[in-house]
Amino acid sequence: MPDAFTAITVAPVGEDPLPFRGTDGKTHLAYDLQLTNATSQPATLTRFEVVDGADPTRVLASFSGDALVDTSCAYGDCNRLRDLPAGYVDSAEIPPQESRVIFVDFTLDAPGDVPPVLLHRLTGTGADSPAFGTATDIGYLTTPLAVSTRDVPVIAPPVRGDNWIALNGCCEPGFPHRSSVMSVNGKLNNSQRFAIDWKRVNAAGEFYSGDKTRNESYVDYGAEILAVADGTVSSVLDGLQANVPGTLPAQDPELASKLTVENVDGNHVVLDLGDGVYAMYAHMIAGSLTVKPGDTVTAGQVLGKLGNTGNANASHLHFQLMDGPSLLEADSLPYELTGFDYGGQVAPELIADADDNLTGKFLGGRLTPSEARESELPLNLAIVDFAE
Prior knowledge:
Layout: E1 8-13, E2 20-21, E3 27-37, E4 43-52, E5 55-64, E6 81-82, E7 93-94, E8 99-108, E9 117-126, E10 136-146, E11 154-155, E12 164-167, E13 182-184, E14 187-189, E15 196-200, E16 224-226, E17 231-237, H1 253-256, E18 267-274, E19 277-284, E20 296-297, E21 302-305, E22 317-322, E23 332-333, E24 336-337, E25 340-345, H2 348-353, E26 366-373, E27 382-385
Parallel strand pairs: 11-24
Antiparallel strand pairs: 1-3, 2-3, 3-8, 4-5, 4-7, 4-9, 6-8, 9-10, 12-15, 12-27, 13-14, 15-22, 16-21, 17-18, 17-20, 18-19, 19-22, 22-23, 25-26, 25-27
């Protein structure tokens, strides 16, 4: 590409995107970009496209209008353009010398449809020369991004049994993990991009029965957490006491003051699976951890019990793969699970409209029978049955 003045610069947040297969049968790519208006004039983004680096006429994804900004939209294909680190904005204008982040994700029919290199086309208004002048129409291609050629990790399930819900999973914005960009160690990171909060319901579709303020009332509380592959224990944290269900510490001034980068994920285990892949299990019950740093583990080995510690408002297993041992600085890695049964989807409005204890029944979208699946990542709000 010839040199061109670019009012809005584009920089990746994290490593090269790695394609993976989701439970929708599609090949997914998901990554984040930092957009900076490096001029003294306001710049407005009206369209953002991902194109084939070898053939820019081949548009792989296009985001405009509500997909960029929609103040009335709570979840789905909307509000991809955010303030830093990930706050909502009310317009697609980027003020002078300010930055935004854009959450990019799209699907293709098959792995062979993914080009080796992606390019990004920006369309909008802004300064069109180093003299800055007045804002005018702009449009250009920029920021080649190589698609990762590493193998997608294929791992065993981290829990057993049926009726698990993949809360806060990949990939559309609106649920927490996809937009969990954080400034750590001098750079922007998203270690949770592909994380899942595994939470279980009973046969009636309820997350709890009885007193909703007691952890023991929740179906998944105390469930055994399993090693997803052979590996070595990199780090652990234990000793944090359980939260009261329904209260998220980050939203309580007194509790929030006690959160740190070390304890935000509660009692946890990080495994080194080799080849630059690490698995992190968070929010475990104090005293339930069965391993210590340096221990070797085998796939299926019990690591501890599912709890409600750290920044959590109810019991669940926060599970993620990442490319380093740091819970927050590492870059999130997608993965695929070995055999499981796919049981359909929970309607997103049921979760979005539920109270902080997730009161209600959530299996209305259950497939009967469920479908056997292999080497796929359960997408957001998938209903999943694992072997006992």
